[in-house]
Amino acid sequence: MCGIIAYIGRRDAKSILIEGLKRLEYRGYDSAGVAILEGAGDLQRARSVGRVQGLEELLGDGFNGSVGVAHTRWATHGGVSEPNAHPHVDDKKLGHGIALVHNGIIENYASIKQWLAKKNHVFESETDTEVLAHLIGELYDGDLEKAVQAALREVTGAYALAVICPKEPDTLVVARKGSPLMVGVGADEYVIASDSSAIVAHTKQAFTLEDYTVAKITRDSIRTSTVDNVEITPEIRELEVDLEEIELGSFEHYMLKEIYEQPEAIKRCFQGRLDLRDGQVRLGGISEFARKLATAKRIVFIGQGTALHAAMIGEYLIEHIAKIPAEVEFASEFRYRNPIVEPGTVVISISQSGETADTLAALTEAKQKGALTVGLVNVVGSSIARETDAGIYLRVGPEIGVASTKAFLGQVAVATMLAAYIGRRRFYSQDDLGSLLNEMDRIPSLISRVLEQSDDIKKATSRYINRENWLFLGRGMNYPVALEGALKLKEISYIHAEGMPAAEMKHGPIALIDDGMPVVFVATKNSQYEKVLSNIEEVRTRGGHVIAVATEGDTDIQSMCEDVFWVPDVAEPLQPLLTVVPLQLMAYHAAVMRGKDVDKPRNLAKSVTVE
Ligand code: M6R
Question: What is the pTM of this model?
Answer without folding.
Answer: 0.89
